[in-house]
Design brief:
Blueprint lengths: L9 H17 L7 H8 L3 H29 L1 H21 L3 H29 L2 H32 L3 H17 L18 H24 L4 H23 L13 H15 L2 H12 L5 H7 L1 H21 L2 H17 L7 H32 L6 H31 L4 H26 L6 H14 L12
Helix pairs in contact: 1-5, 1-6, 1-7, 3-4, 3-5, 3-8, 3-16, 4-5, 4-7, 5-6, 5-16, 6-13, 6-15, 8-9, 8-16, 10-15, 10-16, 10-17, 11-16, 11-17, 13-14, 13-15, 14-15, 14-17, 16-17
Length: 483
């Protein structure tokens, strides 16, 4: 089957979505079943928290490398590697009797996500055009955003009714289904000449830098931001970034092609994605405050965010339609603005209990509504403006921005909240923590205004539609999708 004659199908979309939710819906559900896992395995809470964090860490470390590798060896092949890692990692968790298989499984699940996410986005760019690509990316976003939003409910329901290990049995089933659904998709890779080459030096420096940065962000508050260890980690991260940049600029074969950022729409989408994901700190601040400051149970706090899940799922397709009508810039701005307003009203901690409960519920709903509107236009802008031979790499950088943004946002917001609450003023602590996230939202809006052109998305779709018409003049039937 020739890749050039292949057009993406619903079967491919479903297969990719199943692959995406194998991580976001199932692998991430372990965050919400900590007591059950700890009791069953008989391990310390500290060990369990490290195991949970390793998945996100390894995903963030290798997602750019995996995206670039997918462009070189094949995006379908890299997706399959990710799904196989998902099956093996989940099997480790199903069979775990102590910390070793638990930690091994979480590392493999992180590597699985690093392989799957950029490779599947690249497949959608390759085999769907214009409005069809935007529709496919909407479903990808539903799998990602919707999966992460539903993880707490799904994980809790499965763990309560069937036992926590069944979460990962379902993960295996969905991974295998994904492999079966995409098996007839032809291979896709970037054009290259000569033998395979890879930037191992760049990867080594990048890993050291990212480990230092992630440990600094994640554990800085516990270690103390001004402690010797934190200062050393920060210095290693800063020097590592400088060395990495110098290495990448001096080589022909690179891990990250910084020329990608010369494209303003791509840079705008990636930077705004980083900043909007930083608003994730709101989840930590708001959930902690309503439990500690307002006496909510963990279940009641979770129910307050139910509107987020419903809104983000409902609005992703709306964001797609707005993209097709008005281009990417307007829905990206409006999505960021709605999210920022939703976050801001959660800072009204002077309100009495009932009024504040209503405000927080509405705030979470607006949070999800805005992200739903933003998701597809932003992802499509980043993908459609990437060179065809570097789509996996570009998608890896874009998704890494999500992970780093979320980590930065949580770390900074939690530090502000903890520092002020130590003085006993929980209301002021929550308001200050929320203000930090409002600032992230405003910066995200500004990055879109100044970096994303008014015709982004709309012009690209029109060009692709024109190309399709040129390939298939009136009177000639379009080629049938190949299965």
């Amino acid at each position: 089957m020739e890749a050039t004659n292949y057009k993406g199908t619903n079967k491919l979309i479903i297969g990719i979505v199943f692959g995406v939710i194998s991580f976001w819906l199932f692998a991430q559900s372990v965050v919400n079943v900590v007591p059950a896992v700890q009791e069953d395995l008989g391990i310390s809470l500290g060990t369990l928290n490290i195991a949970i964090g390793l998945s996100a860490l390894f995903s963030g470390l290798f997602i750019v490398a995996a995206g670039g590798l997918a462009d070189k060896i094949g995006r379908k092949k890299m997706t399959y590697i990710g799904l196989i890692l998902s099956v093996i990692g989940s099997l480790c968790l199903v069979l775990a009797q102590g910390s070793f298989l638990l930690i091994t499984g979480r590392v493999l699940q992180g590597l699985s996500a690093a392989c799957i996410m950029p490779a599947t986005i690249a497949l959608m760019k390759e085999y769907f055009e214009g409005a069809e690509r935007q529709r496919a990316l909407s479903y990808w976003s539903i799998g990602s955003w919707g999966g992460s939003g539903a993880a707490s409910f799904a994980g809790g329901a499965i763990a309560t009714s069937m036992g926590w290990r069944w979460i990962f049995i379902f993960c295996i089933v969905f991974s295998l289904l994904s492999m079966w659904l995409i098996k007839d998709t032809p291979e896709s890779k970037g054009e290259s000449t000569g033998k395979f080459r890879f930037d191992y030096t760049g990867l080594a420096v990048f890993i050291v830098t990212m480990v230092a940065l992630n440990v600094f962000i994640t554990f800085g508050a516990d270690l103390g931001w001004t402690s010797i260890i934190s200062i050393i980690l920060a210095i290693v991260a800063i020097i590592g970034l400088f060395v990495f940049y110098k290495i990448e600029k001096s080589k022909e074969v690179v891990l990250i092609d910084f020329a990608l950022f010369k494209n303003k729409p791509y840079s705008g989408a990636t930077i705004s994605n980083f900043l909007l994901n930083a608003i994730a700190g709101t989840l930590v601040v708001a959930n902690t405050y309503v439990q500690v400051g307002r006496g909510f149970s963990s279940f009641q706090a979770g129910m307050l965010s139910l509107g987020y899940l419903v809104a983000v799922l409902a609005m992703i397709r709306v964001g797609e339609k707005l993209l097709q009508r008005a281009g990417a810039k307007s829905p990206m701005i409006w999505g960021s603005l709605i999210t920022t307003v939703g976050v801001a009203i959660m800072g009204l901690t002077f309100l009495p209990d009932f009024a504040y409960t209503v405000v927080v519920f509405i705030g979470f709903a607006l949070f999800g509504l805005g992200l739903g509107v933003y998701a597809t236009p932003s992802t499509d802008t980043s993908v459609s403006n990437a060179p065809s031979n570097k789509v996996g790499e570009a998608a890896g950088v874009y998704k890494m921005a999500s992970s780093l943004g979320g980590a930065f946002g949580v770390a900074i917001s939690a530090t502000v909240y903890t520092s002020i609450s130590a003085a006993g003023n929980l209301e002021l602590a929550a308001t200050a923590g929320i203000i930090v996230n409002v600032i992230f939202g405003v910066l995200s809006i500004l990055s879109i205004i100044f970096m994303v052109p008014r015709n982004a998305g709309k012009e690209q779709t029109q060009k692709e539609a024109k190309n399709v018409r040129l390939k298939n003049p009136p009177g000639q039937p379009e080629p049938e999708p190949t299965h």
